[in-house]
Amino acid sequence: xxxxxxxxPGNIADAAKALATDGAQALSGGQTLVPTMKQRLxxxxxxxxxxxxxxxxxxxxxxxxxxxxxxxxxxxxxxxxAKYYPALAxxxxxxxxxxxxxxxxxxxxxxxxxxxxxxxxxxLGSGATVHTNKRKIKADDYFQGxxxxxxxxxxxxxxxxxxxxxxxxxxxxxxxxxxxxxxxVFVAKYADGVRVAVTGAAENGVxxxxxxxxxxxxxxxxxxxxxxxxxSKGMISDLHGTSAYRANLVKVLTGRAVTAA
Length: 261
Hints:
Elements: E1 5-7, H1 12-19, E2 24-27, H2 33-38, E3 46-49, E4 59-62, E5 65-69, H3 74-80, H4 86-93, H5 98-101, H6 106-112, H7 119-126, E6 129-132, E7 136-138, H8 139-142, E8 157-162, E9 167-174, E10 181-190, E11 193-199, E12 207-208, H9 210-218, H10 243-260
Helix pairs in contact: 3-4
């Protein structure tokens, strides 16, 4: 590690001011950023911790859905969101291990946008709204490729609002060493249709399987996607699984998620 300044603001306005300084980087749970700094792959001169801002923590029911502060740790989402959105709570409870779940945060995960992270599928699958210190961003506009988001310089996530579906489920095929998703699917059924979001499979990160959405909107049953196929082009291929393997997992896990929902 190297020398850097550490700032822990107590409110959103002070955090925005601190992040406006040269070389500043937002720090939430630090589950990715800190190891990256240790390896000298990132070298911010100022770390601005967002974990000391009370208004960015907690889970509550709002008029437009479940509102979760960006600095809320995974374990709190797993326990406190269960009465509002069970599928989301289950997803949070399966992230990493107890150490990760008690340090990592919703906002940190979404800002990093790892192609195998769990939360992006819940946000995209729920059609959630990402609130920042500057604006509101719809889920379909927020994710822009591997480790890439719509966030601009000096902008950070303050909370996320999840519309509550009629039915939903998240099914993950774990990479056993990291507990990241080798492939995972979040399915949510709303009055106006079904959303299917896939993480862990594609080179460009989380995506919606629109063909499955159309079939499941017409008939919400696993049999509705029986004749569909997922192209292997653009899927991740590594020592854990080929692109064809992951493409097949997308279909299998979507069926399981529909059945579970």
